[in-house]
Write a structure and sequence with these properties.
Number of domains: 2
Bound molecules: ligand TNX
Distance between the termini: 21 Å
CATH architecture of the largest domain: Alpha-Beta Barrel
Number of helices: 16
Number of strands: 17
Radius of gyration: 24 Å
CATH class of the largest domain: Alpha Beta
Strand content: 15-25%
CATH superfamily of the largest domain: Glycosidases
Length: 504
């Protein structure tokens, strides 16, 4: 808690101004041990921080007052207090209050956090209060202590973007329900709110579809060479959806169509055109070789509609991803237009990878940009919004450093180091819903390897998605993230020991 105390001391001594603007002097006030006294150790950095003189000594017993309608934020606060051995008693002196207010400026996800004699969390929504709890969790130490000094302050905060996402490829190599729950918890700490699950690809099909049991019997049994096979039952999905919802994370399912479908074809051979001879499960690394038979419209669209019908029953997400990457076929544009319309008829909105922009889609279809240089302008001109995932900044299957074993470098030969990831400027794009980093799993076959590829880089995604451009500064980010290392440790994250954080 050195940083926190340094902050408090600096504010007490110097009298911190309102709205601490990091951009003017990111490193001003750096103390002898290298910590930056002018900031709180928060990632993503809040919109507005007003330090006040004094501290609140949070005792081991508190009185929590939670308004009606705090069904996720109150349990989140309870979990936080429990982890720190803080008990609840209505006669305790220190109060933590969760209030639902009506302040349009805070929006759907914003909040205020006031620490003075009491700790007061206010927001328009339970989601906002949930994020206030996450901020409080970063202000507190990660582990049990005798007592918890907190700086007096007032934070007013809201996100820049509604889409703050991370994608896991569970198709090439499977990740367990347990790992996904951990990942959801970790994402939520950083106020990330979309977990995109890449549920099908050539090497595996990972979600039970009742009308097509062989998809998981056969397609669930394969994986990329060296990777893990497996699948989620529909009960697993319902459990994950419930778990994620309680943490304000929307699970966004992707069924990759019409290419990347060898696992489906190996399960139901009739999905391929008659002249296709390769009908076997696949465990290699090639892309772009498989496709549904686009001339056999009856078989293909029956399959697509049936699968998507079950998918929308399982996943409440407003958006359903239909893939659409890396395939050449004269009937591709027709397929994408039809598939996005099927999603629309099911009452949802489709997402497609950037290539889907060649089709005649409704402008409300979201496009996910993944090649930095892809010419997406025509789609923007037609009114589409983007999810920003340019590979040279946001592909976390690329190395934390150049030449890292078991990483790709096709998009950027130097890999995607933390600093590079931080250089993405979402503010340069107008029509975006937000940002999403992606971890493909051709070369990521264990939970430890996934942790290594994801962390600490996912913290960058969080800051890009939430914080204002003016409040972002890489050196300051390093200081703040470094101070959160005990929190990452407490969450059991086997992060990459980033040299720029002095973690090596
Ligand atoms: C490209 S990004 C792919 C994936 C691979 C990835 C590896 C995209 C839409 N398609 O199929 O896993 O590169 O980095």
């Amino acid at each position: 808690m050195k940083l926190l105390l340094a902050t408090v001391a600096a504010c007490l001594l110097a009298g911190c101004g309102s709205h601490m603007d990091q951009s003017t002097s990111p490193n001003s006030g750096a103390s002898a041990d290298g910590t930056t006294a002018s900031q709180l150790a928060l990632v993503p950095y809040p919109d507005d921080v007003t330090p006040m003189p004094g501290t609140l000594e949070l005792t081991k017993v508190v009185h929590v007052e939670a308004a009606d309608g705090t069904e996720t934020s109150a349990p989140a606060l309870n979990r936080l207090l429990k982890a720190l051995d803080i008990t609840r008693d209505s006669s305790a002196h220190t109060q933590i209050q969760l209030y639902l207010v009506d302040e349009p400026a805070l929006g759907d996800e914003g909040y205020r956090l006031d620490i003075d004699q009491q700790i007061v969390l206010s927001a328009n929504t339970d989601a906002g209060l949930f994020y206030a709890v996450q901020t409080l969790s970063q202000l507190l130490p990660a582990n049990v202590q005798a007592s918890y000094p907190l700086p007096n302050l007032s934070i007013t905060d809201s996100p820049s973007y509604s889409w703050r996402g991370n994608m896991l490829d569970v198709a090439r190599s499977f990740f367990s329900v347990e790992y996904l729950k951990q990942h959801i918890d970790r994402m939520a700490r950083f106020k990330l709110n979309r977990l995109h699950l890449h549920l099908s690809d050539d090497q595996g099909w990972r979600v039970e579809i009742e009308g097509y049991p062989k998809l998981t019997e056969i397609g669930g049994a394969s994986a990329v060479k060296g990777g893990r096979s497996g699948f989620y039952t529909q009960d697993d999905i319902r459990e994950l959806v419930r778990y994620a919802k309680a943490r304000h994370v929307t699970l966004v399912p992707e069924i990759d169509l019409p290419g990347h479908t060898q696992a489906a074809i190996a399960s139901y051979n009739e999905l391929a055109c008659d002249d296709v001879t390769n009908l076997a499960p696949y465990s290699g690394l090639e892309v772009g070789f498989s496709k549904l038979c686009l001339t056999d419209r009856e078989t293909t669209y029956t399959f697509v509609k049936d699968v998507l019908t079950e998918i929308v029953k399982l996943f409440p997400s407003e958006y359903i991803h239909i893939g659409g990457d890396e395939i050449k076929d004269p009937l591709y544009p027709e397929f994408i237009a039809r598939a996005t319309r099927i999603v629309d008829q099911l009452g949802r909105t489709a997402i497609a990878w950037e290539e889907g922009s060649v089709a005649d889609n409704d402008p409300d279809v979201l496009l996910q940009l993944w090649n930095d240089e892809y010419d997406i302008q025509p789609a923007l001109d037609r009114g589409h919004q983007l999810i920003l995932s340019p590979c040279s900044y946001a592909y976390f299957d690329h190395g934390n450093y150049q030449g890292q074993p078991n990483t790709y470098d096709w998009c950027r030969k130097e890999g995607v180091p933390l600093e590079r990831a931080y250089q993405l400027k979402p503010e340069d794009f107008e029509q975006i819903v937000g940002v999403e980093s992606a971890m493909w799993s051709e070369l990521v076959h264990t939970d430890a390897a996934a942790d290594n590829r994801l962390w600490p880089r996912v913290a960058v995604t969080a800051e890009l998605g939430w914080s204002r451009a003016d409040d972002r500064d890489y050196q300051a980010f390093l200081q703040r993230l470094n101070a959160l290392r005990p929190m990452l440790d407490a969450m059991g994250i086997e992060y990459y020991r980033e040299p720029q954080l002095n973690w090596d």
